[in-house]
């Protein structure tokens, strides 16, 4: 059959068949992607809870969880001058110069 003789109906049928095949290919690709196994190294890294150490009378004390640090802040056992350290920090810093501790302070209720 000559391409010049295709009627509009023939072209619409051809387009519809092409769309059907494309849809089948998309469905097959989606199914393959859903069944694909992800290597262990590609799984998202779970954040490990930060463990804090504080200086008490010149000695390291801890580790403390963030919840425990909040309690110590409420009890005024950790103040802005308290030296704190956690994994990843190069050296001990005062609580007021540690953004993570400042974030915990902002989460505390104001004093009455």
How is the main sheet built? 4 strands, antiparallel
> What would the principal axes of the Cα set say about the shape?
rod-shaped
Helix content: 40-55%
Order of helices and strands: HEEHEEH
Strand order of the largest sheet: 2-1-3-4
Number of domains: 2
Mean pLDDT: 84
CATH architecture type of the largest domain: 2-Layer Sandwich
- Name the beta content range: 15-25%
Distance between the termini: 91 Å
Total DSSP helices? 3
Radius of gyration: 31 Å
Throw out a few tags for this protein:
single chain; 112 residues; alpha+beta; Dna Ligase, domain 1; 4-stranded antiparallel beta sheet; 4 strands
What do you see in this structure?
This protein has 112 residues and is α+β, with helices and mostly antiparallel strands. It is built from 3 helices and 4 strands. The chain has 2 domains: 3-41; 52-106, Dna Ligase, domain 1, CATH 3.30.1490. It has a 4-stranded antiparallel β-sheet. The termini are far apart.
Q: Quick gist of this model?
A:
By secondary structure, the chain is of the alpha+beta class. Helix content is 40%, strand content 15%. It folds into 2 domains: 3-41; 52-106, Dna Ligase, domain 1 (2-Layer Sandwich), CATH 3.30.1490.
Fold blueprint:
Elements: H1 8-35, E1 52-56, E2 59-64, H2 66-74, E3 83-86, E4 93-94, H3 99-106
Antiparallel strand pairs: 1-2, 1-3, 3-4
């Amino acid at each position: 059959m000559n391409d010049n003789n295709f009627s509009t109906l023939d072209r619409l049928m051809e387009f519809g068949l092409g769309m059907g095949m494309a849809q089948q290919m998309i469905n097959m690709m989606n199914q393959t992607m859903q069944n694909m196994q992800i290597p262990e190294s590609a799984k998202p890294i779970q954040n490990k809870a930060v463990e804090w150490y504080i200086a008490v009378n010149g000695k390291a004390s801890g580790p403390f969880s963030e919840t425990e640090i909040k309690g110590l802040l409420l009890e005024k056992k950790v103040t802005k001058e308290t030296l704190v350290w956690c994994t990843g920090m190069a050296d001990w810093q005062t609580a007021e110069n540690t953004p993570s501790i400042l974030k915990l302070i902002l989460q505390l209720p104001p004093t009455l």
